[in-house]
């Protein structure tokens, strides 16, 4: 079975080596593997692989220890969240449940339970509960070893204050009959990082005629080295030697003492003397050599470490522990190939048997580098070598199956985790969720993530984001909302981008209130807020006509340092004006703006602009007058916005009166004239606009292209073609070129009627016959059907290009003209415009479909209709009616 697994991993490795780690899951998920059938890659069913791994995992499972920690973890999780004492009393039910296990309490069992809890890293509280419960049993008294074990757990968890509180309490009363009181205090302060206190207590002991035992002496010696109290080290070491306590632990600590002082040569000499000195009470072992090997590797002296090991191997020292250290340091340094080579060679040539910890280190780093073939080899070695896997191995295997694309196997092992005591870590959760998302199993990934949060793990933000994107993409917004609230209730903060995507999706699907609820929950636990979140929420509430909430969010946005745009102010003001009592809401927002920042013309302009868009010119005028009363002189933009507010509401008389008032305050320039002309045209007052344009010309002010464009457009729609042609002549006089917009308007009306060409002929003058205007007249005549020209497409394009720049709209007009007569020419034009970089739009395709239908070429019409759909466009209703009719 595992041979097939290895073969599968090799294939996956070769495929994955061609891609980076980001695309690994996507690449490997395409491998054809199922849980019920075999493939050419994996030769046996997935259920057999699952069964084999379950059986192996069970060999590493300790049911009794799992039961103990399940009881401890279930008891008092909420009762002691704020308990800072050393005695987190379990509830009576936990005492009773532990008693029912009928444990034979011995020092060895207690140490095993504490070691197991220490390995779990997350279970310090459970270890404390167990330590306290054991101490209250009449059949057991804590020993130095059990105290030392709990001290190490607290030290590792950096709970020094808790530990010091206990030691202070312990120093005031005898804790147990069999505990050496002073020894325990000395050890406790030593482990707690207070060697100076430990030395003081040791001095008091000696003064009282008491002494430490060998165990406590070595704890104190090691603490002095760890805390760099180098002067005291030799004193304690000599005391150990005088009492005959010296052993391999003493030697290891002394080598560490040399290394911490960067005296590597002295450490090496010390080791050699130990080997050659036959009077020593114990032989040098691998753990002592391993201390120096580790120090050399930390200084990147790997080759020197290798030579040292070869030397001591020749001296007969058993170096298994030193090999483990060397391999571990090579792995940590990223020198995986060297570590693997040494791992295999020492195992083959010297019978070195690596422990599960070394296997786990190698497998973990190989997984990160996607070296799946090597991972499968090591898993195979462990299984065949009878090495019982621990929790780390199980999690690594779960990650391996995910990376290899065998998500069904990974999920089955995950679902069976209680059978063999698997506690997934954050890495396993991340891999499993990412792979399930890539496999399209969004609901399963959601279940895994929810369970992981419930167990106290919060997978990485990237993983959370991947699942969030998938849920949003699949429209599973209720699940996404539940998941986010589930995390926020536990004060777990997803990434900014994650909740921003979610809130954006809620706003787009008209669930703005839900988005606001998530936003409020996030505000409760985090000060981080994204500008885009505010933008989406404000936009959503504006669309719902809930301007009061939008205004509140606008103020909040500013309080957090973001500057709303003019458009955002406009939308909020328009939404306020659609609510009841708009005047009050409007001026409340204005007052808040003026109170939270220095009043400027810009702020007043925002409100004039917003009121104008809301078609509330009276509000705009009040703001305009308020600005002047507050001593701020209106700038040109203020006058323009005030004019536009009247014109948008078609209050033409007010606009004209205001414009006339402006004549007394400032010189009327192009911008004010343009504002009036454009606004009058939009209000269908083209003749008033034309009078203002003539006034501009008389004053020597050259109208902008916008003025000419909107006036010519309005005149053409009113069929005032003679006036429109005169304006075109006027453009030539002032040096303005025909824009694409104007040219397209002329071509469009030429397609509809011959009146434009007739007006052109009536007003044509001989002196411009050779100008570009005459060429434009020919094009208009051609489009109106009054002049027959060559159907050559390229020539027609060139002629138009001499008059004005072509754009997609121009090509669409050309297509409309050509599709009336020759669809082959129309298709040729379509391909030409594409080659020139003009992107066909919906109308381009619609024109061609209509053209083919007019010529009864339904097959071609169907083909272009399909091409239209592939581009994401839909035909117009007119075209579809025509299509159904044909």
From TrEMBL:
<protein>
    <recommendedName>
        <fullName>Pentatricopeptide repeat-containing protein</fullName>
    </recommendedName>
</protein>
<keyword id="KW-0677">Repeat</keyword>
<feature type="repeat" description="PPR">
    <location>
        <begin position="841"/>
        <end position="875"/>
    </location>
</feature>
<feature type="repeat" description="PPR">
    <location>
        <begin position="460"/>
        <end position="494"/>
    </location>
</feature>
<feature type="repeat" description="PPR">
    <location>
        <begin position="390"/>
        <end position="424"/>
    </location>
</feature>
<feature type="repeat" description="PPR">
    <location>
        <begin position="425"/>
        <end position="459"/>
    </location>
</feature>
<feature type="repeat" description="PPR">
    <location>
        <begin position="669"/>
        <end position="703"/>
    </location>
</feature>
<dbReference type="InterPro" id="IPR011990">
    <property type="entry name" value="TPR-like_helical_dom_sf"/>
</dbReference>
<comment type="similarity">
    <text>Belongs to the PPR family. P subfamily.</text>
</comment>
<dbReference type="Pfam" id="PF01535">
    <property type="entry name" value="PPR"/>
</dbReference>
<feature type="repeat" description="PPR">
    <location>
        <begin position="530"/>
        <end position="564"/>
    </location>
</feature>
<dbReference type="Pfam" id="PF13041">
    <property type="entry name" value="PPR_2"/>
</dbReference>
<feature type="repeat" description="PPR">
    <location>
        <begin position="247"/>
        <end position="281"/>
    </location>
</feature>
<dbReference type="InterPro" id="IPR051240">
    <property type="entry name" value="Mito_RNA-Proc/Resp"/>
</dbReference>
<feature type="repeat" description="PPR">
    <location>
        <begin position="285"/>
        <end position="319"/>
    </location>
</feature>
<dbReference type="InterPro" id="IPR002885">
    <property type="entry name" value="PPR_rpt"/>
</dbReference>
<feature type="repeat" description="PPR">
    <location>
        <begin position="178"/>
        <end position="212"/>
    </location>
</feature>
<feature type="repeat" description="PPR">
    <location>
        <begin position="355"/>
        <end position="389"/>
    </location>
</feature>
<feature type="repeat" description="PPR">
    <location>
        <begin position="600"/>
        <end position="634"/>
    </location>
</feature>
<dbReference type="GO" id="GO:0003729">
    <property type="term" value="F:mRNA binding"/>
</dbReference>
